[in-house]
Amino acid sequence: MFTEAEDERVLRAVQVIVDEKLARPILVGRPAVLLSRIEKFGLRLKLGQDVEVTNPEYDERFHQYWTTYWEMMCRQGITKEMARVEMRRRLTLIGAMMVHVGDADGMICGMASGYHDHLRFIDQVIGQQAGTKTYGAMNILLLSEKTVALVDTHVNEDPTAEQLADITLMAAEKMRQLNLEPKVALLSRSNFGSGSSASGEKMRQALALVRERAPELEVDGEMHGDCALDEALRLRILPSSTLRGSANLLVCPNVDAGNIAYNLLKTAAGENVAVGPFLLGVNAPVQILTSSSTVRRIVNMTALAVVDANKPR
């Protein structure tokens, strides 16, 4: 399910997905606009044959969708009329409801507007995995000499130690699903107690929680970014560090640090080759991408969503 199907990048990605038989796409978009843009971009997609279409202006299923949404939200200030209106103008809400009722197996959204604009509707309709208390976002960078993941890049403004521990464990599990063995560094401007910053204390608390909940996980902190990636430097400062080699999962103390680090690395060292963001903690194969997403990234994230959709839950 692609909620911004009128976007050129999405249509080009869907053409690749159809050609490669990766999935059966469902496009949320106005049929006339989709047809016009498919012709304009020289694509070969046939509506109703290669792809299904959900028209946001009219779909006979919308009555079920908006009434279900109202039943979910009627005690949170959403009236029947608001539910009816929102269901026709919020594309991510349409997609989330289609996943919720089983009309779609997964969803790709986020190419337009902010991350939290999409997350709000996903949280309302789909919610978190059982036992999960927070969401997180993980981006993976394919650098020339290594693969590095960063969290949290989009969700939590200033996460608590408990939230950081949750995010770390969810990110580590996602990396294992991708056949990447996580080696985790909790980052701070404090280096193994060298400073009195609030982030240093928070990351130390998070480290204790992670070690308590996942003693098998290779993790250490709090540390500087260079120590995370340079084992020789790290061992010179703290020979007893439990982290060996270069960390490949960098946990940042807040969303500003995570997002800035990700975008700098992506542009300066990653040649803009990235996978993600992965929405961690959500109870369905749903991914919120960003306005900078390329056709290649949309295709990659769709393939991963298909894998996720076929896993038992």
TrEMBL record:
PANTHER family, per this entry? PHOSPHATE ACETYLTRANSFERASE (PTHR43356:SF3)
**Under which name does UniProt file this protein?**
NADP-dependent malic enzyme
Is DNA-binding there in the keyword field?
no
Identify the residues that the record assigns to the Phosphate acetyl/butaryl transferase domain, covering every copy. 2-306
Write out the GO MF terms. Answer: malate dehydrogenase (decarboxylating) (NADP+) activity; phosphate acetyltransferase activity
List the residue ranges forming a coiled coil, or say none.
none
Catalysed conversion reaction: acetyl-CoA + phosphate = acetyl phosphate + CoA
The family database entries (Gene3D superfamilies) matched by this protein are listed as:
3.40.50.10950, Isocitrate/Isopropylmalate dehydrogenase-like
Enzyme kind, highest EC tier: oxidoreductase
Record-listed E.C. numbers? 1.1.1.40
Q: Which UniProt keywords apply?
A: Acyltransferase, Oxidoreductase, Transferase
Q: Name one Pfam family in it.
A: PTA_PTB
Q: Which family does it belong to?
A: Belongs to the phosphate acetyltransferase and butyryltransferase family.
